[in-house]
Amino acid sequence: MYRSGYRLKTDVDFDNAIIFRLIISITQQDMHVGSGFIKSHNNEVVYISNFAVSKEHCEFKICL
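User: That's the sequence. What structure does it adopt?
Assistant: Structure tokens below.
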């Protein structure tokens, strides 16, 4: 199972984060951008609460 600090890399990781309602921390260039539950995602973007972030430019990790 996923642990705190696990980095989401694949579509399955993002899908499971949605299914299991995992809280995700988002960073860009080592700066915290936000956190929350993933609402949806596609090949380019992850939608969290009221904002969207680029998969290419951000890092997504599970936080507990």
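The chain has a mean pLDDT of 94.
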